[in-house]
Amino acid sequence: MKKLSARRRHPLAALVVLIFALAVTGGLYAVLAPSGEAQAEETAQTLAIEEGKALYSVGCSSCHGNEGQGGTGGPSLVGVGAASVDFQVGTGRMPMAQPGPQAERKPTVYNQAEIDQLAAYIASLGPGPAVPESDAYDPAQGDPARGGELFRTNCSQCHNYTGQGGALTHGKFAPNLADVNPRHLYEAMLTGPQNMPSFPDGVLPEDAKRDIIAWLDATNTSESPNPGGLSLGGYGPVGEGFFAWTIGIGMLIAVAVWIAARSAKAKKS
Protein backbone atom coordinates (compact mmCIF):
# COMPACT_ATOMS: atom_id res chain seq x y z
CA MET A 1 0.00 0.00 0.00
CA LYS A 2 2.90 2.32 0.78
CA LYS A 3 4.41 1.65 -2.66
CA LEU A 4 1.07 2.38 -4.36
CA SER A 5 0.67 5.63 -2.43
CA ALA A 6 4.18 6.64 -3.40
CA ARG A 7 3.48 5.95 -7.10
CA ARG A 8 0.30 8.03 -6.95
CA ARG A 9 2.34 10.98 -5.76
CA HIS A 10 4.85 10.53 -8.59
CA PRO A 11 5.00 13.62 -10.93
CA LEU A 12 4.23 11.47 -13.96
CA ALA A 13 1.27 9.62 -12.40
CA ALA A 14 -1.33 12.01 -13.80
CA LEU A 15 0.19 11.73 -17.28
CA VAL A 16 0.11 7.93 -17.14
CA VAL A 17 -3.52 7.95 -16.04
CA LEU A 18 -4.42 10.35 -18.83
CA ILE A 19 -2.71 8.18 -21.48
CA PHE A 20 -4.44 5.09 -20.14
CA ALA A 21 -7.85 6.81 -20.20
CA LEU A 22 -7.31 7.97 -23.76
CA ALA A 23 -6.29 4.47 -24.85
CA VAL A 24 -9.38 2.92 -23.26
CA THR A 25 -11.65 5.56 -24.80
CA GLY A 26 -10.12 5.05 -28.24
CA GLY A 27 -10.47 1.29 -27.99
CA LEU A 28 -14.11 1.49 -26.95
CA TYR A 29 -14.86 3.90 -29.80
CA ALA A 30 -13.21 1.60 -32.32
CA VAL A 31 -15.31 -1.31 -31.08
CA LEU A 32 -18.66 0.41 -30.60
CA ALA A 33 -18.68 3.09 -33.29
CA PRO A 34 -20.48 2.20 -36.57
CA SER A 35 -18.26 1.27 -39.49
CA GLY A 36 -17.76 3.56 -42.45
CA GLU A 37 -20.10 1.46 -44.58
CA ALA A 38 -22.81 1.56 -41.92
CA GLN A 39 -22.44 5.31 -41.58
CA ALA A 40 -22.74 5.69 -45.35
CA GLU A 41 -25.93 3.59 -45.36
CA GLU A 42 -27.37 5.62 -42.50
CA THR A 43 -26.55 8.86 -44.31
CA ALA A 44 -28.13 7.60 -47.54
CA GLN A 45 -31.25 6.49 -45.66
CA THR A 46 -31.54 9.87 -43.94
CA LEU A 47 -31.20 11.63 -47.27
CA ALA A 48 -33.84 9.34 -48.85
CA ILE A 49 -36.26 10.14 -46.02
CA GLU A 50 -35.74 13.87 -46.47
CA GLU A 51 -36.22 13.63 -50.24
CA GLY A 52 -39.28 11.47 -49.75
CA LYS A 53 -40.79 13.96 -47.32
CA ALA A 54 -40.35 16.73 -49.89
CA LEU A 55 -42.10 14.61 -52.53
CA TYR A 56 -44.83 13.70 -50.07
CA SER A 57 -45.50 17.33 -49.16
CA VAL A 58 -46.10 18.19 -52.82
CA GLY A 59 -48.00 15.14 -54.04
CA CYS A 60 -49.66 13.41 -51.09
CA SER A 61 -50.17 15.71 -48.12
CA SER A 62 -53.35 17.31 -49.45
CA CYS A 63 -55.20 14.01 -48.92
CA HIS A 64 -53.15 12.18 -46.27
CA GLY A 65 -52.20 15.14 -44.04
CA ASN A 66 -48.93 16.95 -43.54
CA GLU A 67 -47.47 14.18 -41.37
CA GLY A 68 -49.26 11.19 -42.91
CA GLN A 69 -51.86 11.23 -40.14
CA GLY A 70 -54.74 11.03 -42.63
CA GLY A 71 -57.39 13.51 -43.65
CA THR A 72 -60.77 13.86 -45.26
CA GLY A 73 -59.40 12.69 -48.61
CA GLY A 74 -57.23 9.77 -47.56
CA PRO A 75 -56.45 7.37 -44.69
CA SER A 76 -53.56 7.55 -42.25
CA LEU A 77 -50.28 6.21 -43.64
CA VAL A 78 -48.62 5.69 -40.28
CA GLY A 79 -47.59 2.04 -40.07
CA VAL A 80 -48.58 1.02 -43.62
CA GLY A 81 -44.92 0.36 -44.40
CA ALA A 82 -42.71 0.73 -47.46
CA ALA A 83 -44.27 -2.26 -49.23
CA SER A 84 -47.66 -0.56 -49.37
CA VAL A 85 -46.16 2.60 -50.86
CA ASP A 86 -44.16 0.62 -53.41
CA PHE A 87 -47.35 -1.18 -54.50
CA GLN A 88 -49.75 1.78 -54.54
CA VAL A 89 -47.40 4.29 -56.19
CA GLY A 90 -45.51 1.72 -58.28
CA THR A 91 -48.71 0.52 -59.97
CA GLY A 92 -49.93 4.07 -60.58
CA ARG A 93 -52.90 3.71 -58.23
CA MET A 94 -51.57 6.61 -56.19
CA PRO A 95 -51.92 9.48 -56.54
CA MET A 96 -55.56 8.82 -57.52
CA ALA A 97 -56.74 10.47 -60.72
CA GLN A 98 -60.09 11.29 -59.13
CA PRO A 99 -62.22 10.13 -56.17
CA GLY A 100 -64.05 6.90 -56.88
CA PRO A 101 -65.00 3.53 -55.41
CA GLN A 102 -61.57 2.10 -56.21
CA ALA A 103 -58.14 3.30 -57.36
CA GLU A 104 -57.28 1.82 -60.73
CA ARG A 105 -53.94 0.79 -62.19
CA LYS A 106 -52.46 3.41 -64.53
CA PRO A 107 -49.05 4.72 -65.68
CA THR A 108 -46.90 5.83 -62.77
CA VAL A 109 -46.30 9.48 -61.89
CA TYR A 110 -42.98 8.89 -60.11
CA ASN A 111 -39.89 6.98 -61.21
CA GLN A 112 -38.57 4.10 -59.10
CA ALA A 113 -35.99 6.24 -57.29
CA GLU A 114 -38.71 8.67 -56.21
CA ILE A 115 -40.98 5.80 -55.18
CA ASP A 116 -38.15 4.44 -53.02
CA GLN A 117 -37.77 7.85 -51.38
CA LEU A 118 -41.50 8.10 -50.70
CA ALA A 119 -41.43 4.59 -49.26
CA ALA A 120 -38.49 5.49 -47.02
CA TYR A 121 -40.34 8.50 -45.64
CA ILE A 122 -43.59 6.62 -44.99
CA ALA A 123 -41.64 3.78 -43.37
CA SER A 124 -40.04 6.33 -41.03
CA LEU A 125 -43.49 7.29 -39.68
CA GLY A 126 -44.10 3.89 -38.10
CA PRO A 127 -43.18 0.19 -38.44
CA GLY A 128 -44.83 -1.70 -41.28
CA PRO A 129 -44.15 -4.30 -43.98
CA ALA A 130 -40.90 -3.71 -45.87
CA VAL A 131 -40.36 -4.12 -49.59
CA PRO A 132 -39.59 -7.85 -50.08
CA GLU A 133 -36.30 -9.22 -51.32
CA SER A 134 -36.28 -10.57 -54.89
CA ASP A 135 -35.97 -14.18 -53.74
CA ALA A 136 -39.32 -13.90 -52.00
CA TYR A 137 -41.29 -13.36 -55.21
CA ASP A 138 -39.14 -15.05 -57.87
CA PRO A 139 -41.62 -17.28 -59.78
CA ALA A 140 -38.76 -19.52 -60.98
CA GLN A 141 -38.29 -20.66 -57.36
CA GLY A 142 -41.99 -21.36 -56.76
CA ASP A 143 -44.19 -24.44 -57.22
CA PRO A 144 -47.01 -23.52 -59.65
CA ALA A 145 -49.02 -26.68 -58.91
CA ARG A 146 -49.15 -25.91 -55.19
CA GLY A 147 -49.68 -22.24 -56.01
CA GLY A 148 -52.74 -23.17 -58.08
CA GLU A 149 -54.26 -24.96 -55.09
CA LEU A 150 -53.54 -21.99 -52.82
CA PHE A 151 -54.90 -19.54 -55.37
CA ARG A 152 -58.14 -21.47 -55.81
CA THR A 153 -58.57 -21.63 -52.04
CA ASN A 154 -57.74 -18.02 -51.16
CA CYS A 155 -58.06 -15.84 -54.28
CA SER A 156 -60.30 -17.32 -56.97
CA GLN A 157 -63.51 -16.16 -55.28
CA CYS A 158 -62.69 -12.63 -56.48
CA HIS A 159 -59.98 -13.00 -59.15
CA ASN A 160 -61.46 -16.22 -60.65
CA TYR A 161 -59.49 -19.35 -61.39
CA THR A 162 -56.62 -17.93 -63.42
CA GLY A 163 -56.51 -14.39 -62.06
CA GLN A 164 -58.42 -12.70 -64.86
CA GLY A 165 -60.45 -10.61 -62.43
CA GLY A 166 -64.10 -10.21 -61.61
CA ALA A 167 -66.78 -7.77 -60.49
CA LEU A 168 -67.49 -6.93 -56.85
CA THR A 169 -70.24 -4.87 -55.24
CA HIS A 170 -70.74 -1.09 -55.21
CA GLY A 171 -68.72 -0.46 -58.38
CA LYS A 172 -65.61 -2.22 -57.10
CA PHE A 173 -63.78 -5.03 -58.86
CA ALA A 174 -60.96 -7.53 -58.48
CA PRO A 175 -58.41 -6.56 -61.14
CA ASN A 176 -56.96 -8.79 -63.81
CA LEU A 177 -53.57 -10.05 -62.59
CA ALA A 178 -52.09 -10.61 -66.05
CA ASP A 179 -48.52 -9.36 -66.45
CA VAL A 180 -48.45 -7.73 -63.00
CA ASN A 181 -44.92 -7.34 -61.64
CA PRO A 182 -44.27 -10.30 -59.26
CA ARG A 183 -43.02 -7.87 -56.58
CA HIS A 184 -46.31 -6.01 -56.71
CA LEU A 185 -48.23 -9.30 -56.46
CA TYR A 186 -46.28 -10.17 -53.32
CA GLU A 187 -46.81 -6.69 -51.85
CA ALA A 188 -50.54 -6.83 -52.57
CA MET A 189 -50.86 -10.11 -50.66
CA LEU A 190 -48.72 -8.72 -47.85
CA THR A 191 -50.53 -5.39 -47.40
CA GLY A 192 -54.08 -6.00 -48.63
CA PRO A 193 -54.78 -2.89 -50.70
CA GLN A 194 -58.31 -1.46 -50.83
CA ASN A 195 -60.89 -4.30 -50.90
CA MET A 196 -58.37 -7.10 -50.68
CA PRO A 197 -57.68 -8.83 -47.35
CA SER A 198 -54.06 -8.89 -46.21
CA PHE A 199 -52.10 -12.13 -45.97
CA PRO A 200 -49.17 -11.54 -43.58
CA ASP A 201 -46.51 -14.23 -43.33
CA GLY A 202 -48.25 -15.67 -40.28
CA VAL A 203 -51.32 -16.39 -42.41
CA LEU A 204 -49.73 -17.12 -45.79
CA PRO A 205 -45.97 -17.83 -45.47
CA GLU A 206 -43.41 -16.43 -47.88
CA ASP A 207 -43.05 -19.70 -49.83
CA ALA A 208 -46.82 -19.92 -50.30
CA LYS A 209 -46.95 -16.41 -51.75
CA ARG A 210 -44.10 -17.33 -54.09
CA ASP A 211 -45.98 -20.45 -55.22
CA ILE A 212 -49.08 -18.37 -56.02
CA ILE A 213 -46.94 -15.98 -58.05
CA ALA A 214 -45.47 -18.97 -59.89
CA TRP A 215 -49.01 -20.16 -60.69
CA LEU A 216 -50.01 -16.79 -62.10
CA ASP A 217 -46.78 -16.65 -64.08
CA ALA A 218 -47.59 -20.03 -65.59
CA THR A 219 -51.22 -19.33 -66.46
CA ASN A 220 -51.90 -15.60 -66.79
CA THR A 221 -49.21 -13.70 -68.64
CA SER A 222 -48.91 -12.69 -72.27
CA GLU A 223 -46.32 -15.44 -72.68
CA SER A 224 -48.21 -18.19 -70.83
CA PRO A 225 -49.16 -21.19 -73.02
CA ASN A 226 -52.89 -21.62 -73.67
CA PRO A 227 -53.41 -25.08 -75.16
CA GLY A 228 -57.19 -24.79 -74.83
CA GLY A 229 -57.42 -21.88 -77.23
CA LEU A 230 -59.80 -18.99 -76.59
CA SER A 231 -60.93 -18.92 -72.96
CA LEU A 232 -64.09 -17.45 -71.51
CA GLY A 233 -62.51 -15.38 -68.78
CA GLY A 234 -60.89 -18.19 -66.85
CA TYR A 235 -64.08 -19.21 -65.04
CA GLY A 236 -63.00 -22.83 -64.98
CA PRO A 237 -63.93 -25.96 -66.92
CA VAL A 238 -67.43 -26.36 -65.41
CA GLY A 239 -68.59 -22.80 -66.00
CA GLU A 240 -66.99 -22.49 -69.42
CA GLY A 241 -68.22 -25.96 -70.43
CA PHE A 242 -71.78 -25.14 -69.38
CA PHE A 243 -71.65 -21.88 -71.34
CA ALA A 244 -70.29 -23.67 -74.42
CA TRP A 245 -72.93 -26.40 -74.24
CA THR A 246 -75.76 -23.89 -73.78
CA ILE A 247 -74.66 -21.77 -76.75
CA GLY A 248 -73.81 -24.82 -78.88
CA ILE A 249 -77.10 -26.65 -78.28
CA GLY A 250 -79.06 -23.43 -78.73
CA MET A 251 -77.43 -22.87 -82.11
CA LEU A 252 -78.09 -26.46 -83.16
CA ILE A 253 -81.77 -26.11 -82.24
CA ALA A 254 -82.01 -22.83 -84.15
CA VAL A 255 -80.44 -24.39 -87.27
CA ALA A 256 -82.73 -27.45 -87.05
CA VAL A 257 -85.82 -25.22 -86.80
CA TRP A 258 -84.61 -23.12 -89.71
CA ILE A 259 -84.06 -26.21 -91.90
CA ALA A 260 -87.43 -27.71 -90.94
CA ALA A 261 -89.23 -24.44 -91.71
CA ARG A 262 -87.82 -24.45 -95.24
CA SER A 263 -88.32 -28.11 -96.10
CA ALA A 264 -90.60 -29.15 -98.98
CA LYS A 265 -93.30 -30.53 -96.69
CA ALA A 266 -93.36 -27.32 -94.71
CA LYS A 267 -93.75 -25.25 -97.89
CA LYS A 268 -96.74 -27.40 -99.07
CA SER A 269 -98.55 -26.95 -95.80
Structural account:
The chain has 269 residues and is an all-alpha fold. Among the domains are: 41-125, Cytochrome c-like domain (Cytochrome Bc1 Complex, Chain D, domain 2); 139-218, Cytochrome Bc1 Complex, Chain D, domain 2, CATH 1.10.760. Helix content is 57%, strand content 1%. Helix 3 packs across helix 6 (112-125), helix 5 packs antiparallel against helix 6 (112-125) and helix 5 (81-90) crosses helix 10.
List the keywords:
single chain, Cytochrome_c_Oxidase_Subunit, 269 residues, metal-binding, 13 helices, transmembrane, two-stranded antiparallel ribbon, 1% strand, Cytochrome Bc1 Complex, Chain D, domain 2, Cytochrome bc1 complex cytochrome c subunit, mainly alpha
